[in-house]
Amino acid sequence: MPSGFPTPETAPADPAVQAAVSHSGSLSEQQADRVREILRAYPVAEELGRRFQQAGFTLALVGGSVRDALLGRLGNDLDFTTDARPEQILKLVKGWGEAIWDVGIAFGTVGVRKNDLQIEITTYRSELYDRNSRKPEVSFGDTIEEDLVRRDFTVNAMAVRLPEVEFIDPHHGLSDLAERVLRTPGTPEASFSDDPLRMLRAARFAAQLDFEVAPEVVTAMTEMADRIEIVSAERIQGELNKLVLSQHPRKGLSLLVDTGLAERVLPELPALRLERDEHHRHKDVYEHSLTVLEQAIALEETGEGDGKPDLTLRLAALLHDIGKPRTRRFEPGGGVSFHHHELVGAKMTKKRLRDLKYSNELIADVSRLVELHLRFHGYGSGEWTDSAVRRYVRDAGPLLDRLHKLTRSDCTTRNKKKAQALSRTYDSLERRIAELKDQEELDAIRPDLNGDQIMALLDIKPGREVGEAYKFLLELRLEQGPLGEEAATAALRQWWTERSA
């Protein structure tokens, strides 16, 4: 909880709030205290409720805000639902909120910033997809019961009416929250037919909350997996991001693969489940990739990162071996090879992430990490020259810290002696990089002469020849380290003379 907010031990309990929440009956005293806590921590919630009540409308805290409060987790995002229409919501928050945005108003949502809180207020609604449409049709409702029944899962279909502080739970979300299970308010078939993206949300919430998905929900996800194809790539990407950035991504990803949803949104992942037979045994690439992802997550707080979930690193860890199915070859004697799978995988990564509408920067970074993830294995027992170390750093560029983490995560062998040897070898490489950084400007390797100096020395104009000279000096810098202006000038003149001859 942000500092300065009241706590159950220090904040005075409003007698009206105390009585109203405790009267709800189905809440335990601890849960009632958590609901009281969110109202104490965020007095704007009750304030907003009175504002809507005075205007003749109802307002309720709803969805993830209630779920997280009952789980003892408070964030800076609050979701409300109301019978007021979007235009009426805008009038009520104008002059009250510090900032207002209406990008979601077509779907009945108005955003407000108040006291560093991000607030969303949405008109009671129902939405469904036409069989052939990628966009949901939205219709507004008049009661909170109508709104809650259209929610994705029962744990998100609880509300606290304000300012009365009345707990509303028509679909037994509180029981499911206690059992840590995901169920739909109505039948899962009806829910997923209305909005197929909810199938991905089931996997995402399983990963975020570490909940189990009810068997009937899993069955519906499996039988209706093809319905996800009508959902836009942007919405699918959003759910995948939240899943991959969660605390337990393996749980959600495994569910996507087991239900067949991954075949439609990330087919490269289930393709990693290569068959194994008695003659061609090799590591389970699918399980290996999930383990690499988990090990990369464990390293996020090390190195130069800020300790926050790193989407670029996590996607690279998940996708680093997707080139293996296409490059698999059975060798004489029963061996299996995957030559150049890192290059094939980098191309596949670009295509998949482009299809999912990721940014060009993220696509370039993730595919580059996939391409470089095997480079370290050429280091052997430390035989690389300083030139090779410089090239490793140059090729990784700003991704070097992520490449360190990906490479270390890629070791999933159960042979402790082998794992320790690999770790020591990579420690050696990192020490050499650090030593060279102390001696040289290794983070931004440039020739000792710039373009203007090259043109002046060779008496040439901008063009292809300047680029060739620059490339020559850069290669010289990588091979020999910093030369200084005088030595670089002599080397350039000699190269130019030989080139002209």
Brief overview, please?
The chain is an alpha+beta fold. The chain has four domains: 1-176, 2-Layer Sandwich (Beta Polymerase, domain 2), CATH 3.30.460.10; 180-266, Hydrophobic Seed Protein (Orthogonal Bundle); 296-444, no CATH class; 451-500, no CATH class.
CATH architecture of the largest domain: 2-Layer Sandwich
The CATH class of the largest domain is Alpha Beta
Termini separation? 73 Å
Q: Which bin fits the share of residues in helices?
A: 40-55%
Number of structurally distinct domains: 4
Radius of gyration: 29 Å
Shape descriptor: elongated
Largest sheet: 7 strands, mixed
SSE class:
alpha+beta
Description:
Keywords: Magnesium, Metal-binding, Nucleotide-binding, Nucleotidyltransferase, Transferase, tRNA processing. This is CCA tRNA nucleotidyltransferase. Residues 285-445 form the HD domain. One of its GO terms (molecular function) is tRNA binding. It is an enzyme of class 2 (transferase). The structure is a single chain. The chain has helices at 15-22, 29-41, 43-54, 64-70, 86-93, 144-149, 173-179, 188-194, 197-209, 215-223, 233-244, 249-259, 261-265, 285-298, 311-319, 324-327, 341-355, 360-372, 386-396, 400-409, 416-439, 451-458, 464-480, 485-500, and strands spanning 59-62, 77-82, 99-101, 109-114, 117-123, 125-128, 137-140, 159-162, 166-168, 181-182, 212-213, 329-330, 336-337. With 501 residues, it is of the alpha+beta class. It has 24 helices and 13 strands. β3 and β4 (109-114) form a beta hairpin. The strands form four sheets. A seven-stranded mixed beta sheet has the order 3-4-5-2-1-8-9. It has a two-stranded antiparallel sheet with strand order 6-7. A two-stranded parallel ribbon has the order 10-11. The chain is 52% helix and 10% strand. The N and C termini lie far apart (73 Å). The protein has four domains: 1-176, Beta Polymerase, domain 2 (2-Layer Sandwich), CATH 3.30.460.10; 180-266, Hydrophobic Seed Protein; 296-444, no CATH class; 451-500, no CATH class.
